[in-house]
Amino acid sequence: MKSVESLLAEAGLKLRDLDAxxxxxxxxxxxxxxxxTGVVQGLAFGAGLPVVPVSSLAALAQAAPADRVxxxxxxxxxxxxxxxxxxxxxxxxxxxxxxxxxxxxxxxVPEETGWTGVGSGWDRYSTALLARLGQTVAGWKPECYPHxxxxxxxxxxxxxxxxxxxxxxxxxVYLRDEVVQKR
Length: 183
Description:
By secondary structure, this protein is an alpha/beta fold. It is built from five helices and seven strands, in the order H-E-H-E-H-E-E-E-E-H-E-H. The strands form two sheets. It has a five-stranded mixed β-sheet. Strands 1-2 form a two-stranded parallel ribbon. The protein is globular, with a radius of gyration of 17 Å.
């Protein structure tokens, strides 16, 4: 909360001066996604603001220095959170297909070539992902992470598109129903 106060003070703004708040809705680590959702709900309720949910995979893709991005977050249990994104003329990434959680050896193969992989899923499973995806991948960028600015850019775009919701409708997205691996 101190960081929020400092950032607003630096910009000469009050929370109520904003149009909306954006937050990383997941997928990702259960606790982190829950904390992000709870914090944004509290701030939004207190200031009377709507919120814009932003996919963690989209924020990761937005951070990538590429036009075609295969975003993969390590989901543990030999799985990845997966999304394919194409950057539009305005520089905003757009989802191609659906986000999913799947075994890293079963990710969907894009029809076109020239894709760049990013995220902790690539950092952990690059050999298997490259073997699966073959010539469709131009390369992957190790240790590429999203930043708050990426969430802000996508949040502003979502706000312009009318995707803001009331704070009570700000929900985490996990993509996975089972969180325990049985042996």
